[in-house]
Design a protein that fits this description.
Blueprint (H helix, E strand, L loop, with lengths): L1 H23 L4 H14 L6 H9 L3 H44 L8 E10 L7 E4 L12 E6 L2 E11 L4 E5 L6 E6 L5 E6 L5 E7 L9 E4 L11 E8 L8 E8 L8 E6 L10
Antiparallel strand pairs: 1-2, 1-12, 2-5, 3-4, 3-12, 4-5, 6-7, 6-9, 7-8, 8-11, 9-10, 10-11
Length: about 280
């Protein structure tokens, strides 16, 4: 312990002696160079701006040029980083603008007043059950309003409104196990019932037991649907289930056209527009 104390005292004394020596030495070129270099290493920010120029003015020419070059290099690197960030931001905004432009060109089914909404929240545990959007009773949204989403230049069925608040609404997705909708297959216009499985796929039940079913067939909302307008795409048949001899119908698995994980904007089909929107 005493040995460490003696070493610490010796180092402190040596540094103090060196400081006094430097202070007492005349401001010769080597001393000024050492002071400028040491000061820049210890506190480089002090050499930026107007005060930094005054500090550099007293340094030897070669040291001053070296320090100025380093300061300029840091400034250019910071400018480059800002430029890269701006380029990334512009690119992201351009993509967002193009996506929104395509969505605004989509037309709502006749007889309905559309209200676009942004997805605010997803349940991380129950991904395929519901979404919260930023449109509510303030925009005329009501319970059981059908909800559509954009997919490859068209609107597809997503779900229905099950909870309405002043500025937000909860959308129950078709993939939720509590969801069901009347639907038909494009091949032979076979009617059935689309039901959620609380997963990435839907199940279509009650199809004619004698019908020939094929993967890839499109599934649309039926004119008999109590929620959705007719002929809205729901998805495509992903698998034809094996026939159960104890059932009088067939079933298929359906891959939804709208992926719950990629939904960002939704169109809520209101039964009537708010006052003042009719003239727009």
């Amino acid at each position: 312990m005493q040995r460490e104390t003696r070493i610490a005292n010796f180092v402190l004394g040596a540094l103090a002696a060196l400081s006094l020596l430097l202070l007492s030495l005349p401001l010769s070129t080597p001393v000024r160079s050492f002071k400028a270099g040491a000061g820049y290493l210890l506190d480089p920010l002090a050499y930026h701006g107007e005060a930094g120029y005054r500090r550099l003015a007293g340094a030897p020419d070669r040291i001053r040029r070296l320090l100025e070059a380093d300061i300029e290099n840091e400034s250019l690197q910071a400018e480059l980083r800002r430029g890269q960030w701006l380029a990334t931001t512009v690119s992201a905004l351009s993509l967002e603008n193009e996506r929104l432009r395509r969505e605004l060109a989509l037309k709502a089914p006749a007889g309905r007043s559309p209200a676009w909404a942004h997805v605010m929240e997803r349940d991380p545990i129950h991904w395929y059950r519901s979404l919260v959007v930023d449109v509510g009773s303030d925009r005329g949204v009501e319970l059981n309003d059908p909800v559509l989403g954009p997919h490859e230049g068209q609107l597809v069925a997503v779900g229905r409104v099950v909870d309405v608040r002043p500025n937000t609404s909860t959308v129950l997705l078709l993939t939720d196990e509590l969801s069901a909708a009347a639907a038909y297959l494009s091949s032979g216009t076979l009617e059935g019932l689309i039901q959620g499985q609380d997963g990435p796929r839907l199940r279509m039940n009650y199809l004619n037991a004698e019908a020939l079913l094929s993967e890839g067939d499109a599934v649309y909302t039926s004119p008999t649907s109590a929620t959705f307008p007719p002929n809205v795409l729901i998805g495509r048949v992903a698998r034809v289930n094996a026939r159960d001899p104890f059932l009088t119908f067939q079933s298929v698995e359906v891959a939804p056209a709208a992926d719950a994980s990629s939904l960002q904007e939704l169109m809520i089909l209101r039964s009537r527009p708010l006052a003042g929107e009719e003239s727009r």
